[in-house]
Amino acid sequence: MTDIRALLPRILLAALALTASPGARANLVLSQVILDLVPGTPQAQDIEVWNNSKERSYVVAEPVEVKAPGTPEEQRVTQPDPGILGLLVTPQRMILEPGQRRLVRVAAVAPRGARDRIYRVAIKPVAGEVTAGNSALKLMVGYDVLVIYRPEQLDGSVSAQRSGGSITFRNSGNTNVEMFEGKQCDAAGRACRTLPSNRLYPGATWQVAVDPANPVEYRVATAGQSVVSKF
Length: 231
What we know:
By secondary structure, the protein is an all-beta fold. The chain has 2 domains: 13-149, Immunoglobulin-like; 158-230, Immunoglobulin-like. It has one helix at residues 82-85; strands at 10-17, 25-26, 28-30, 34-37, 44-51, 57-67, 75-77, 87-90, 93-96, 101-108, 117-126, 135-149, 158-163, 166-171, 177-184, 193-194, 198-200, 205-209, 216-222, 225-230. Strand 13 (158-163) and strand 14 (166-171) form a beta hairpin. The longest helix is centred in the middle third of the chain and has 4 residues, at 82-85.
């Protein structure tokens, strides 16, 4: 199946004056890229950041809140006050020597709301010291960590509506769900084809092209608990 937990890192290109040869790479490795703060568990988690390169790395961790995620109104909101943002990330600046590892603590500091609060934390290397006159192009790889702060009572209800050769799913609950292992088979349960996977946030819709004559099946997961549903 498609692993929708795997997030593709953001690729950041910057022209820097460095002593390294052209094409040098600044490698960061994170221990996890999705933090799911579910009820009954600690409201803080740690991310191990590893400088897997031969150069010193200057790293920043920048949190934002994602409003109306997965909808046309989605926007990222920056708020320097953790008390207002509802999320504390520390440290937000680090210097990592080659091979060094450090922990970044991500903690929810507001009460749980009536529905998910969604955050992104950009953990990325930034330009460091310029020590020589040789020009080079340095490839810097950063990560956009997903942080989910779920409500106390979880409702991952998903409805579906068909129209011709498509089906539209809607999350009518208060917490996001993962929809994966999707398939559509013929009446005999054979000739199955795989359907795409997605994370569906509260209030968001998702349209998938399907055969109008046959049922659709998905595994729907809410905070680690999953069921197989037919639509």
